[in-house]
TrEMBL record, chain A:
<dbReference type="InterPro" id="IPR011045">
    <property type="entry name" value="N2O_reductase_N"/>
</dbReference>
<feature type="domain" description="YNCE-like beta-propeller">
    <location>
        <begin position="8"/>
        <end position="107"/>
    </location>
</feature>
<protein>
    <submittedName>
        <fullName>PQQ-dependent catabolism-associated beta-propeller protein</fullName>
    </submittedName>
</protein>
<dbReference type="Pfam" id="PF10282">
    <property type="entry name" value="Lactonase"/>
</dbReference>
<dbReference type="InterPro" id="IPR011964">
    <property type="entry name" value="YVTN_b-propeller_repeat"/>
</dbReference>
<dbReference type="InterPro" id="IPR019405">
    <property type="entry name" value="Lactonase_7-beta_prop"/>
</dbReference>
<dbReference type="InterPro" id="IPR048433">
    <property type="entry name" value="YNCE-like_beta-prop"/>
</dbReference>
<dbReference type="InterPro" id="IPR015943">
    <property type="entry name" value="WD40/YVTN_repeat-like_dom_sf"/>
</dbReference>
<feature type="signal peptide">
    <location>
        <begin position="1"/>
        <end position="17"/>
    </location>
</feature>
TrEMBL record, chain B:
<dbReference type="Pfam" id="PF01061">
    <property type="entry name" value="ABC2_membrane"/>
</dbReference>
<keyword id="KW-0813">Transport</keyword>
<feature type="transmembrane region" description="Helical">
    <location>
        <begin position="140"/>
        <end position="163"/>
    </location>
</feature>
<dbReference type="InterPro" id="IPR047817">
    <property type="entry name" value="ABC2_TM_bact-type"/>
</dbReference>
<protein>
    <recommendedName>
        <fullName>Transport permease protein</fullName>
    </recommendedName>
</protein>
<dbReference type="InterPro" id="IPR000412">
    <property type="entry name" value="ABC_2_transport"/>
</dbReference>
<feature type="transmembrane region" description="Helical">
    <location>
        <begin position="230"/>
        <end position="251"/>
    </location>
</feature>
<feature type="transmembrane region" description="Helical">
    <location>
        <begin position="64"/>
        <end position="86"/>
    </location>
</feature>
<dbReference type="GO" id="GO:0043190">
    <property type="term" value="C:ATP-binding cassette (ABC) transporter complex"/>
</dbReference>
């Protein structure tokens, strides 16, 4: 009897699915993609020019950089309602949430500062002067080091999160747009859009361990502009979005060699993995769509139309 | 039973002829491979083609033309078969075959099926090489495409049969190349999607849409991606039936008598 009841409840529950949330820079919206059906199941309005997007650790809150509204918006992912804004400084483009779920590090592109905001008290905790046009934001898995990259100064700034002071600066190639720590915290990967390279640093010593260049037959080198990066779930590979080259590079995380190039839509910006780690989603700005890649087979599966100029992406596991 | 034996004999002869001509097999493979390795590489769609059904994401040009090249193999194979029929008639084998005590449609049908089988063998070899080259389609798609390839082979074979009823001499076959193979292949969706033709000229796009070869290619393309293109299936099947009926009419005894003076 109880079993029958349980079974019927299970059957009655609507199919729950993991989601990928994508900011549409030109539409001022976020699109919600159902990972199971690969269809857009909801679109919610946001502030102006939404770019950076990330969930709180419990996935109850969604933070969105509304660049032209000069605010970080906090959305309830269940309803799509904007709960409140966070002070963000001017023109927030990209941000990173500390592992403790408390502090948000925001790059203020026009002011050359990194703003640190307490998500609970909703107050600015610190503003750190960095290079010109900060954008790439990474944080070590232990939360002790935050890295801001500045697009015009061409540097990665290593910031101590206890003192909020820059402890080191590393020169990288032209226009660094993204910084990503390896899941073990031992390495920092920085992509340089104009330089067309990815530099790997030893995080403990801030010294360069390697540099990766790209070459795709039939595509002019200046089209290859690395931006977003993401480690594969098993940490053996790193995916790098190559901008207007319309490809994602798959890099061996140990040898730093390019294993494969995967064709995606036009001008690929950022990447997100499905919560189960089987699918990779890429935001393709110019073509206004998201390409889904099978992580095990390393093959593009499908491309889904979203809003105009999709930019950032974040994953949310099955809501409960 | 003896009918089966007769059909078997016709098919065995066709297959044996194909297998004994190694150059023919080689030529049948080289043609599409040149298109794949040279033409497609030169076309440089390294940045990806726009998404059109049945594709679900961006594809390189090589992937786009692979189904068209399968169609091309069937087209050339069918014309080769038609050429051999003209040859058979010149050598007298044809009269021998047609005097067998079975209905004409049965004998010509056996010939047609044999020709389509030869085409399928060539397509399979091409797909193997294309796979090694990096054109990976859904694994089940190769199976799903078999009926589509077979029907396309029969449709093009029927067209060949119809032509062989009209073409009297081997020498005239060059005309078949110019007026049948080339227009059919180039004015189709084999090399470019129809929307691209539409940009060049709406007239061209219409000719492409009316071309049965376009529908054979689309039927194969959709089947390779485990989808059914109902319109293309209907057009290909109808074209096969019409061509075969016309060919039978063309092979009426009264029409197959050698020209006067022979």
């Amino acid at each position: 009897m109880i079993r029958a009841l349980l079974l019927s409840t299970l059957l009655a529950t609507p199919a729950l699915a993991d989601e990928i949330w994508v900011t549409n820079e030109s539409d001022d919206t976020v699109s919600v993609i159902d990972v199971a059906t690969l269809a857009v199941k909801a679109t919610y309005p946001t502030g102006e020019r939404p770019r950076g997007i990330t969930f709180s650790r419990d996935f109850k809150k969604l933070y969105i950089c509304a660049s032209d509204s000069d605010a970080v918006e906090v959305m309830d992912p269940e309803t799509g309602a904007i709960l409140h804004d966070l002070p963000s400084g001017e023109d927030p483009e990209q941000f990173v949430l500390a592992p403790d779920d408390k502090l948000l590090y925001i790059a203020n592109e026009n002011d050359a500062v990194t703003t640190v905001v307490d998500t609970q008290s909703r107050k600015v905790v610190a503003q750190i002067d960095v290079g010109v046009e900060p954008e790439g934001m990474g944080i070590s898995p232990d939360g002790k080091v935050q890295v801001t990259t500045s697009e015009t100064t061409n540097m990665a700034h290593w910031i101590d999160t206890t003192t909020h002071q820059i402890v080191a600066n590393s020169l990288v190639d032209s226009r660094p747009r993204h910084a990503e720590f390896s899941p073990d915290g031992a390495e920092l990967w920085v992509s340089a859009e104009i330089g067309g390279t990815v530099t790997v640093f030893d995080a403990a010593t801030q010294t360069e361990k390697g540099k990766i260049a790209f070459e795709i037959p039939g595509i002019r080198p200046e089209k290859i502009q690395p931006v977003g990066m993401l480690f594969s779930p098993d940490r053996t590979k790193v995916f790098v979005a190559l901008g207007p080259a319309n490809h994602v590079a798959v890099i061996d995380a140990k040898t730093f060699t390019v294993e494969r190039y995967l064709m995606v839509g036009r001008r690929v910006w950022h990447l997100a993995l499905s919560p189960d780690g089987t699918k990779l989603f890429t935001t393709n700005g110019v073509s206004g769509d998201v390409t889904v890649i099978d992580v095990a087979a390393l093959e593009p599966l499908a491309t889904i139309k979203v809003g105009r100029f999709p930019w950032g992406a974040a994953a949310r596991p099955t809501p409960n | 039973m003896s009918a089966l034996r007769a059909a078997g004999a016709i098919m065995t002869r066709e297959l044996a002829r194909f297998l004994s001509q190694r150059e023919r097999f080689f030529a049948a493979l080289v043609r599409p491979l040149v298109w794949l390795f040279v033409f497609a590489a030169g076309f440089r769609a390294a940045l990806g083609m726009s998404i059109i059904p049945p594709y679900r994401t961006y594809i390189p040009y090589e992937t786009y033309i692979a189904p068209g090249l399968c169609g091309m193999i069937l087209l050339f194979s069918a014309m080769q078969s038609s050429l051999s029929l003209v040859n058979d008639r010149e050598s007298g084998t044809m009269r021998l075959m047609l005097t067998a005590p079975w209905p004409r449609w049965f004998l010509l049908g056996a010939k047609l099926v044999a020709g389509a089988l030869v085409g399928l063998v060539q397509v399979a070899a091409f797909q193997g090489i294309a796979w090694a080259y990096g054109i990976h389609l859904p694994p089940l798609g190769y199976l799903a495409a078999l009926p589509a390839l077979a029907l396309s082979g029969l449709m093009l074979g029927s067209l060949g049969l119809l032509l062989s009823a009209r073409v009297r001499q081997l020498e005239n076959f060059a005309g078949v190349m110019n007026f049948v193979i080339f227009p059919m292949f180039f004015l189709s969706s084999a090399l470019y999607p129809i929307w691209k033709m539409q940009e060049a000229s709406p007239w061209l796009a219409w000719i492409c849409r009316l071309n049965p070869f376009t529908h054979a290619v689309e039927l194969i393309r959709f089947a390779l991606y485990l989808q059914l293109n109902a319109v293309s299936l209907a057009v290909t099947a109808a074209a096969a039936a019409v061509f075969f009926a016309l060919a039978l009419w063309g092979y009426e005894p009264a029409r197959t008598r050698p020209p006067k003076g022979e």
